[in-house]
Design brief:
The chain is α/β, with parallel strands linked by helices. The protein is built from nine helices and eight strands. An eight-stranded mixed beta sheet has the order 1-2-4-3-5-6-7-8, sandwiched between helices. β5, α4 and β6 form a beta-alpha-beta unit. The longest helix is centred in the N-terminal third of the chain and has 37 residues.
């Protein structure tokens, strides 16, 4: 038996990496780990901010912003009766005005606001003879709290709105219009898409918060990372929303009313300002495109969040009254 000596042709090659190559690979590994850790930590801390900003209910009433125009019904020249209606979790306060018509308009304010948000519209609608009801709902200051202790963007608040609609019907209301401001529009959508056809005659929305996840993306995109001065990357926002869902026990899709817009059965009038820096204009545009058969969309140049009336009161009033007249 012959054993051939090993030659260079039969030996496995030995791969030697230079010191600079190993340093470079180590550096890349450190960078990848640092970026990953930064995203996770940044997402975790941002999720806390998202939870506090959007879901944690505040027991304190906010001071009426200047663009609400009126601080009280008296300032608006309105004669209101303060009543309570029975929601599934307890009595809720509301303002009611008497009108000469059988039609009722129920105003649903935005998160953290109050009935005062509706006073601008209530003033000219009162002059037109409509019965009106400006409601509070769960987690409003002084009102019963949601069992979760959090805002739920229509998922639970719709039950309070349903009770308000029932109150109006018991008072003789025939046609009922929902007038929703910001998240009040989300609550109105949550109620309307689940009700039998004919329960609600119309809906009017001002700066509607129709998809909370898109609203969060829009808001966070305007923030800068502290001490760095650059915008928050969308990848960090995605991780933050994942953590928020876990920490707040929510499903983002449950707040997406664009996805369920095919269930709409009544005409909708939407106002949205081009300078709204809280809720993206594009979500209103998307609803108008999805349901062009039902939605009348008014883009208000230069108007901020829920400030379509302020930009041009006369045009706003005319558009609402013309829409309600059918």
């Amino acid at each position: 038996m012959w054993i051939l000596p090993a030659t260079s042709a039969t030996m496995l090659p030995v791969i030697e990496r230079s010191l600079s190559s190993r340093i470079w690979r180590g550096f890349l590994f450190v960078v990848v780990v640092a970026v990953f850790a930064g995203h996770v930590l940044g997402g975790w801390f941002l999720s806390g901010d998202i939870r506090d900003r959007y879901f944690t209910a505040s027991p304190e009433a906010i001071a009426p912003p200047d663009d609400w125009v009126f601080d009280t019904p008296e300032q608006a020249g309105l004669d209101v009766t303060e009543i309570q209606y029975d929601s599934p979790i307890g009595p809720m306060a509301a303002w009611v005005t008497e009108g000469s018509r059988s039609e009722w308009i129920i105003h649903v304010h935005g998160t953290g606001g109050g009935p005062g948000e509706a006073l601008r519209a209530m003033k000219f609608l009162d002059a037109a003879g409509y019965h009106q009801m400006a409601i509070t709902y769960r987690n409003d200051p002084g009102q019963p709290a949601d069992p979760s202790g959090q805002y739920r963007y229509g998922v639970t608040e719709r039950e309070d709105l349903a009770a308000a609609v029932e109150y109006a019907r018991n008072q003789g209301a025939t046609d009922i219009t929902l007038f929703g401001y910001s998240t009040g529009a989300a609550i109105s959508m949550a109620y309307a898409i689940r009700q039998p056809i004919g329960t609600i005659a119309n809906m009017v929305f001002d700066s509607p918060n129709l998809d909370l996840e898109k609203t969060v993306d829009f808001d966070v995109s305007q923030d800068d990372i502290p001490l760095v001065g650059v915008s928050v990357p969308f990848t960090v926002t995605a991780i933050a929303k994942f953590f928020t869902a876990l920490r707040s026990d929510i499903n983002w899709r449950s707040f997406d009313y664009l996805e369920r817009s095919d269930a709409l059965s009544m005409p909708v009038l939407i106002f949205h300002g081009t300078e709204d820096m809280e809720v993206p204009l594009e979500t209103s545009r998307q609803l108008a495109e999805l349901r062009s058969d039902l939605v009348r969309f008014v883009i208000v140049e230069g108007a901020g969040h829920v400030a379509g009336y302020n930009a041009d009161p006369a045009s706003y009033e005319l558009a609402v009254l013309d829409f309600l007249a059918g």
